[in-house]
């Protein structure tokens, strides 16, 4: 596909970004540490800004429920920004990851089309970006067997998500699909030979394993001429939104979110029920007053100001006034997006057509990657 530029290696990234350093050089941090990832992310950001067309970006979402305002400010707007800069953006709907959750399959068709509507309403342009569903790109999954050969059971078992799931499932009850989850994710990323993966910190261990797989593939099958770029995380600078319970991270399936597709009245009801505290004077104090501070943060993101400024504005008027201000701010900020989303949701045929087109383009890309893999593995006959 013409939208795929030449592979960019890690060396390219470093030299491209050293021309325009994001910030002063820092002492080297150990590979795999948060500092090392943050440093790479900063370099990457500078390199993308300088030469966006050289970069292939891949992100993904599990279709486990409607996207919410946390997704909008944490990642959707960033994807749209990268698209608009001129990078090649692919967005994967990870339906085969969602089947690790037993209740999900029945709801998948609605959740998958809902994601497509959210993406388009937020500004992803199907003419420029590729939106596809994991299950519809068989070439992608054919990378899984070679990739499984490049990592040990012990390495996969050290992945924090896998460890958590193993603990939650009680020892031996975890599925082998769940166990190999980080390797699938490597296949998602490397199928489009992405160099850039915008994710949150929780995904860093998956990225580390993806880099290991890319490196080992290159060492074993493409010595001297690396085939896979070692992808790096582009860490979001957006602050983490808590849910309306003021306790946990805002989550698709936690019942504590404001879905992008919620109506203005639903939004008012959800915010009215948000947990706050009894202090009348509103102040921004995330540690001491998590509920109130989170509402201030969300209002500030909608109003493009600071949480402190919103706190000042509400002053002694109390949590009720803050909630009314927030409701207006969210409804105002989302009104255009919601109008577009409602029109899209009323036309599922169009959403399916967008997805079918994205699936086809993703298949072309993944098929080319697979052909490259076969040639290098000496399995092209
Ligand atoms: N695991 C990611 C999540 O839970 C979703 C995902 C699947 C993903 N494949 C990906 C993210 C590839 C980035 C790249 O949110």
What's the order of the H and E elements? HHEHEHHEHHHHHHEHEHHHHH
Strand order of the largest sheet: 1-2-3
Helicity range of the residues?
55-70%
Number of helices: 17
Number of strands: 5
> Pairing-aware structural class of the strands and helices?
mainly alpha
Overall average residue pLDDT: 90
Description:
The chain has 381 residues and is mainly α. 56% of the residues lie in helices and 6% in strands. It is built from 17 helices and five strands. It has helices at 10-18, 34-50, 69-85, 95-98, 104-122, 138-141, 144-148, 153-157, 160-169, 176-179, 181-191, 204-221, 264-272, 290-303, 307-314, 318-345, 348-377; strands at residues 56-61, 88-93, 130-133, 196-199, 232-235. Strands 1-2-3 form a three-stranded parallel sheet. A two-stranded parallel ribbon has the order 4-5. Helix 1 crosses helix 2 (34-50), helix 5 packs across helix 16 (318-345) and helix 13 runs antiparallel to helix 16 (318-345). It is globular and about 75 Å long. The structure holds tryptophan. Residues 58-62, 92, 94, 97, 185, 188-189, 197, 199, 203 line the site of tryptophan.
